[in-house]
What we know:
The complex is a heterodimer of chains A (about 200) and B (about 600).
Chain A: E1 4-11, H1 16-29, E2 34-37, E3 48-55, E4 70-73, H2 78-81, E5 91-95, H3 111-117, E6 122-126, H4 128-134, H5 141-151, H6 160-166, H7 170-189
Chain B: E1 3-9, H1 10-20, E2 25-28, H2 35-44, E3 49-52, H3 56-68, E4 72-78, H4 79-84, H5 86-95, E5 100-107, H6 121-127, E6 131-132, H7 137-154, E7 158-163, H8 164-167, E8 169-176, H9 190-193, H10 197-218, E9 222-225, E10 231-236, H11 239-250, E11 255-259, E12 261-263, H12 267-274, E13 279-283, H13 289-300, E14 306-308, H14 321-331, H15 358-371, E15 380-381, H16 406-418, E16 423-427, H17 428-444, E17 450-455, E18 458-459, E19 465-466, H18 474-480, E20 485-489, H19 494-511, E21 515-520, H20 524-530, E22 537-540, H21 550-555, E23 560-562, E24 568-570, E25 589-592, H22 599-603
Parallel strand pairs in B: 2-3, 2-4, 4-5, 5-7, 6-7, 10-11, 10-13, 13-14, 15-16, 16-17, 17-21, 20-21
Antiparallel strand pairs in B: 1-8, 6-12, 9-11, 18-19, 22-25, 23-24
Helix pairs in contact in B: 1-2, 1-7, 3-5, 15-19, 16-17
Bound molecules: iron/sulfur cluster (2 copies).
Amino acid sequence: MERINILLTGVGGQGIITMGKMIGNAAVNAGVKVLVAETHGLSQRGGSVQVHIRIGDVIAPLIEKGRADFIVGLEASEVLRNLSYANKSTVFILNRQTIKPVVPSVNAPDIDAVVEKLQAFSYYIVDGEEMAKDAGNPKGSNAVIIGFMLGMGFFGKIPREAFEKAMITDLNRKCLNAGYSQALTAKNNGGSRPAITR
Amino acid sequence: MMPKAKFMIGNEAIAAAAIHAGVSVAAGYPGTPSTEIIENIKRLGQDVYVEWSINEKIAFETAYGAAISGGSGLVAVKHVGLNVASDPLFSSSYTGINGSLVIVSADDSSMWSSQNEQDNRFYGLHALIPVLEPYDVQSAYDLTMKAFEISRRFHHPVIVRTTTRIGHVRSRVVYSDDHEPQRGRVVKDPSTYVLAPENARNDRKKQLERWHSISDYLASLCSYDPGEGDAIIITGGISYSYVRETLDETGIHANVLRLDATVPVPEKTILKYVNGMKRVLVVEENDPVIEMQVADILLKNGIMVEFHGKDLIPMEGEMTFEKLKGGLYTFYGMKYEGSILQDEPLTPRPPALCPGCPHRSSFYDIKKGLSRVSMQNSFFSGDIGCYTLGALPPFREQDAATNMGSSLGISNGVFRSTDAVPVAVIGDSTFFHSGMEGVANAVYNRTAELIVVLDNRSTAMTGQQPSPSTAIDIGNVCRAMGVEYVETFDPFDAESGEKSIQNAAEYVKNTGKPAVVIAKRACALEVLDKIDSETPKAYVDQDKCTGCTICYNFFTCPSILPLSNKKATIDDSCIGCGACVEVCPFNAISVKGEKPVGWDEAWNA
Ligand code: SF4
Ligand code: SF4
């Protein structure tokens, strides 16, 4: 199978390790090889966190710089901290959320400023927070985004059932499905660079 | 054997292998990236005695004690933790053991959560203990099993060395859960285990004999992927995975020798595979441990080849494709074009103390208390834990933090050379790990210093493992050691906290003796773990808020955010701890909502 390199970025405490686990479990459910490299320890305390997911015919755990197929920002601005992993065909998936760094006199980055820097790339913005809340699970934006990526066909041949099985709770499954239908709507609306809003 | 498969991290694979191999006593001290090994043995190993010891030395001695009794012992620590256990480590190699002793050293290449990236394979060379190095998650399972087998067979300790991308990578692992814990029985053999000079000299001879037979045995612990041409790549550990994938992808048909035992590198193996080759590239993460041994073997045997290692593969940081390809391509006369894009972060984002963390309140109280006696610019001798984050703005209350327990020794030296009263800041778990000795020294040698113990009832940074402070009262320990001034305060009670700090600082200045102040309140995450129902929430009264910025710029709870008019607001991440209420000089913050059942008890555990 072809290799898929997915870099998850975000802020410690956002559920990024869980997100990596969910995608990993789905791949395992589908009998596809997967490696998930996590960051534990100090950086989990509200700092920048990355999780590397490599799917397919892979042996080493970390993605090579310039070789990420997808970069996900569970906190939108964190993708820019990891831009060196991108190449010109990398697709960015941004959660519509930015978080103020815990540094005096530094404000939360503006999502428009993030988008401005991504003009040369394909990117999608997903209302993860809101959709998760609507689905009854305020912490479920990670599952929403997985659903969205699934709907866009970003996980190759790993089927939807494998993801449904990988969701531990029904609420997460609801989030997954919400993201999935959002992707279908986005696809139907077409456009080379659709920014999804509701 | 009933093989099963599960998606797990390397540390769980090591735990599963230890149980499968019959470990009966496992001990460790929490430290990233090793923590989940002991946690998982605790969770999965029903008949295994598992403990969080007070420090790595005790953990080591515990596993060793089991092993000299014929049992199967395991000790799992992070790389720097093995420094703390290095004394018994060397001795264990002299005496050998009756059962099996496996030492897992989890090294943190790239320093994701550590003060250095020391390469603990050197301990193997130094103490004459073989080092097995997994190259992926499955091999972490397989080689841990192998380590127990070698240890029992040769009556010698064995080190399993992982790095972050083994222990914290998740992958499908085939494993077995059959096991029979191998327990010991009392063995009395003082001529081996009492390392008095005469015995030690005898042991030394036997140690070297064991070392040589182990070296021979390890010759089989490698794998050779034949390629084409007269160049060979010698590698081991996680680097192998990068080498293999790169060669497969680029179609370079190199000969590859993977060593699963990287200490000692078996001479036979090297001679066998390097024979006939003209060029050698050693690829390894961190230090040139394989490289030095291979170079030595080639030199001794008069073999002349073009030889590369750390001249092409960087020593700094963990192995990546970029590092490998940079070196490998040069070795093959090609050029590696790396990523053209640069990271472009919009803001810095260092880690921060959690919402409701009592350390934040302590740092706030300490600073205000000290400024009452003009000591706010004291030297803050820090230590290792979540509270090391107190080094960052706005607090800047850690001027040095180098190793577990460092706060007390360093503050003593600072005081001796400057006569300025320092402030030592240490956590409760670190206090029991290696801080108590420093307190004893301060009493014995009369160090004029203010010692602040941040007692949050847990070993928080590694995931809230229980701390000895829940069983032993730190104040009583200090009093028993002769500290005359001991006081405890609640960091959420800002006024009394400031007062406690002020009084203690005055006492130190007046008497020239050490004083201990204990800030006692549970780790916020530990509290949240105990509470099932919804927590209260804090609100800012927009009429009362003046936009003074104190709560978000000087107290900096992550839940408190500035609005565009500089007034404060509080978001959903607030846990309702109430610590910010007193911080606001205009009484604009209040907490609303019912206290959940067990709330006060959890905070005051
Ligand atoms: S884990 Fe506990 S001690 Fe560490 S920052 Fe969070 S609340 Fe504070
Ligand atoms: S009550 Fe105040 S200090 Fe506590 S978490 Fe909420 S905002 Fe932060």
